[in-house]
């Protein structure tokens, strides 16, 4: 085994104890993970290796990253311990894979809201060309299953009048530059559905709500991380909107069990929502929770309006995701919002 911070080790053990994941189906398999140094990808890689070390699962992992040194740093402990991990350097759009592979989790994506606005072409190329390339690799290697990690943003901006199932959609304005992200995610999903229907590639889609936990970088630009930094530093939390958007959240370890559940139990050509329904709240309510609980002392929450479109913010939405389809596969979330922050800040503050 290798050393991990206590909360990360606890999460890895939590994942390996999940009863929704058919661990025997991973025995002796090779899993390709794209976006392997991202939050979910990195947690998934560690969980697969941890299961191999603690459950004698003999799981081999190929971790795709654009920067080998970054991959080696992210998984230094596992590599030093001799875990069956290979770092594959390259871009997802042009990947040429020489290794045999049985299962694929495709998580490579542009994730920064500011990049959606500043680099919309690259955002779309990564989603479309990258997903097509991975589907072609899955087809060539006759993989057993592929899970594509999509986003709740494919649903548009719901007004809160209904719970959002996998068949509920609102529209986008394609001429808004920020639409580069949700529109290309939708098209990538359509590629998965098309490859499943026409070419019999066993592709599934997981639509994740905003996910966080240990492993979030201290300088992460997303609002949930900004709130945590402010509280830890004893500074007021500053909102640049009224904080009216409402949505659910998901803990990283719960996201990993959702990914593996869909990969190994999901239906081909099917999409699944992933969220902890009990965390549904407004941005303002989340900020107030963090202000009360996450720092050495409570801080205030202030509103200083700025141009949300320029900052890459999504429009105001009320995204109450229905996860019954995923729960029908046996999956359940285990960590609520306050504990998500407690566990994330335990690592950030270290």
Structural notes for this entry:
The chain has 13 helices and 13 strands. By secondary structure, the protein is of the alpha/beta class. The protein has a single domain (6-216, 248-280, 319-334), classed as Rossmann fold, CATH 3.40.50.720. A 7-stranded parallel beta sheet has the order 3-2-1-4-5-6-10, with helices on both faces. Strand 1, helix 2 and strand 2 form a beta-alpha-beta unit. The longest helix has 21 residues, at 120-140. The protein is globular and about 55 Å long. The two termini are 22 Å apart. The model has no long low-confidence stretch (mean pLDDT 94).
Spans of at least 5 consecutive residues with low confidence: none
* Strands side by side in the biggest sheet: 3-2-1-4-5-6-10
The backbone outline, from C-alpha atoms, is: globular
Helix content: 40-55%
Could you say which structural class the secondary elements and strand pairing correspond to? alpha/beta
* Tally of separate domains: 1
Output the CATH homologous superfamily.
NAD(P)-binding Rossmann-like Domain
The major beta sheet can be summarized as: 7 strands, parallel
Quickly count the helices: 13
What distance lies between the first and last C-alpha atoms, to the nearest angstrom? 22 Å
How do the helices and strands line up, and which of them pair or pack?
Elements: H1 6-16, E1 30-34, H2 39-55, E2 60-65, H3 68-74, H4 76-80, E3 85-89, E4 103-106, H5 113-118, H6 120-140, E5 145-151, H7 180-198, E6 203-208, E7 210-212, H8 223-232, E8 237-239, E9 246-251, H9 252-265, E10 271-274, E11 276-282, H10 283-293, E12 301-303, H11 308-311, E13 318-319, H12 324-327, H13 337-348
Parallel strand pairs: 1-2, 1-4, 2-3, 4-5, 5-6, 6-10, 7-9, 8-12, 9-13
Antiparallel strand pairs: 9-11
Helix pairs in contact: 1-2, 1-9, 2-9, 6-7, 8-10, 10-13
């Amino acid at each position: 085994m290798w050393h991990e911070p206590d909360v990360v080790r606890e999460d890895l053990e939590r994942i390996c104890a999940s009863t929704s994941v058919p661990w025997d189906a991973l025995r002796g398999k090779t899993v390709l993970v794209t976006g392997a140094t991202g939050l979910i990808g990195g947690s998934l890689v560690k969980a697969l290796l941890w299961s191999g070390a603690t459950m004698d699962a003999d799981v081999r992992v190929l971790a795709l990253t654009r920067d080998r040194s970054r991959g080696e740093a992210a998984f230094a402990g596992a590599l030093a311990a001799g875990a069956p991990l290979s770092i594959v350097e390259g871009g997802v759009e042009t990947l040429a894979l020489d290794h045999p592979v049985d299962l694929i989790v495709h998580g490579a994506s542009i994730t920064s809201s500011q990049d959606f606005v500043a680099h919309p072409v690259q955002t779309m190329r990564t989603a479309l060309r990258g997903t097509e390339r991975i589907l072609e690799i899955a087809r060539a290697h006759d993989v057993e299953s592929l899970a594509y990690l999509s986003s709740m943003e494919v649903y548009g901006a719901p007004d809160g009048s209904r719970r959002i199932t996998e068949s509920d959609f609102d529209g986008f304005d394609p001429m808004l530059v920020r639409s580069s992200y949700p529109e290309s995610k939708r098209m990538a999903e359509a590629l998965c559905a098309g490859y499943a229907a026409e070419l019999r590639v066993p592709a599934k889609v997981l639509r994740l709500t905003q996910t966080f936990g240990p492993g979030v970088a201290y300088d992460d630009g997303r609002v949930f991380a900004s709130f945590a930094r402010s509280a830890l530093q004893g500074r007021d939390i500053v909102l640049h909107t009224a904080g009216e958007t409402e949505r659910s959240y998901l803990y990283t370890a719960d996201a990993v069990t959702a990914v593996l559940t869909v990969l190994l139990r999901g239906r081909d050509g099917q999409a699944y929502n992933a969220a902890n329904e009990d965390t549904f709240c407004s941005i303002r309510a989340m900020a107030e929770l963090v202000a009360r609980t996450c720092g050495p002392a409570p801080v205030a929450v202030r509103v200083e309006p700025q141009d949300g479109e320029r900052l890459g913010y999504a429009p105001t939405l009320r995204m109450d995701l229905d996860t019954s389809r995923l729960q029908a596969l046996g999956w359940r979330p285990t960590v609520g919002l306050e504990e998500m922050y407690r566990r994330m800040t335990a690592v950030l503050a270290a």
